[in-house]
């Protein structure tokens, strides 16, 4: 017999768990368990703090790019003030999240949840039973298994560094490595990015990632391709010596892991709950049910092909709440077009059908690449390398996907996402009257 009983227990108070909790709160008794910061990765040590630092850095980069067309400024970044700006936002997140849950009458418990049996968890030596569970425990950074790995820090450490070190290294050139290297370099550090093969951001076309790498090199980032670290040594002066194959060696003040993220499952004891999982996360069916039909999983911790992003986690959390309320009397989950943006000195963004899928299916799709650097919008902001690639559905003449390289790719990609979701064709796009001149008023030209 458990100490306490509720209808639904949600493990993890990030975007996925919170969306499920709010979706259920008015009809069920809900307990949310969180063992770290209320709000999870995104607002505390992910997307939001990163983009606050990026806003400062990106504005400095934009000011430098406009110097040749009349903007005379001598901007430099004060890391401590920029971190204070970030902290003013992040320090309110855990308490604000907790207050929100309490005012929606959602029960909360701070501590690590561990399954005792299929319907019961233990948190802080108290047992809680529920009819349904939602697992939303997210990911944590992968750390290389090399000598000296105890000296490696993570993206969370980077985003709360009180002072900027003189020399830093990132292991891995994916989203985290590329975005944080840009922030560190523009803020004044000497930055080294170590990538074990010859391409960063492997899901994007090489022509675009090469343009981004060139841009980041111009902004001071040193790339070390085809380089695998073998050990890290602490020197007497407190610096670290990074050693790799083929006599690779550099010295830095700090080194950060950015080589991917792995599911946070260790403390859950999923075997006693009858939940199947592997190295890529918890296995779910098309209703996000795990191998135990009373236990669902959402967000980053799920083993699925959708990108690991905040809006995806929230979408899944809301979907599962509806499933629990209707006994799964709803359609299997169908994702709309999902935009994803790399925020660096240039932004690369994608949405909808990927270029590789379009190229592999020429009978279904037409791919159109337009170098837009000389267009009015891009000239106005001095963005000469801009490229917009569209994927058109041949049968319906609708937009099916887009990939954009530009300083404002984050804005442009949202217009494409709306159009894909509305199944817009050229006529439908032309039927809009957007504000002019803006990136939205360019949309008709891409079709
Ligand atoms: C540096 C960085 C930048 C990012 N930038 C972006 C971006 O720009 N845009 C974007 O869309 N996404 C971005 N992401 C990804 C985004 O943060 C995640 O996709 C999102 O947070 C996933 O939400 P989630 O609820 O699945 O997991 P999380 O937010 O990770 O929440 C999981 C929660 O579960 C808790 N937990 C784990 N195990 C237990 C347990 N046993 N008991 C109790 N609690 C537990 C954890 O402490 C955590 O708080 C970024 C990620 C990082 C690391
Ligand atoms: N803007 C965004 O949307 C955003 C930003 C940050 C993180 N995220 C999410 O977080 C996830 C994790 O990001 P990430 O950058 O940690 O992982 P990632 O999978 O995007 O990139 C990891 C990189 O490290 C490289 N790598 C792997 N092992 C290595 C090794 N031993 N030495 C050198 N390089 C190595 C890989 O080849 C790859 O380039 C992403 O998939 C993304 O969904 C999203």
UniProtKB/TrEMBL annotation:
- Coiled-coil features, chain-numbered ranges: none
Cysteines engaged in disulfide bonds, as pairs: 42-47
Binding residue positions for NAD(+): 172-179, 260
Q: Which UniProt keywords apply?
A: FAD, Flavoprotein, NAD, Nucleotide-binding
Top-level taxon of the source organism: Bacteria
- Co-factor binding comment: Binds 1 FAD per subunit.
Q: What cofactor is needed?
A: FAD
According to the UniProt entry, its GO molecular function terms are:
nucleotide binding; oxidoreductase activity
Q: Which residues does the UniProt record annotate as the domain FAD/NAD(P)-binding?
A: 7-317
Residue span(s) of domain Pyridine nucleotide-disulphide oxidoreductase dimerisation: 338-440
Q: Which residues bind FAD per the record?
A: 51, 300
Q: What Gene3D superfamilies does the record point to?
A: 3.30.390.30, FAD/NAD(P)-binding domain
Question: Family per UniProt?
Answer: Belongs to the class-I pyridine nucleotide-disulfide oxidoreductase family.
Q: Which PANTHER family match?
A: GLUTATHIONE REDUCTASE (NADPH), MERCURIC REDUCTASE
Write down what this protein is called: Glutathione reductase
Q: Which organism is it from?
A: Lentilactobacillus curieae
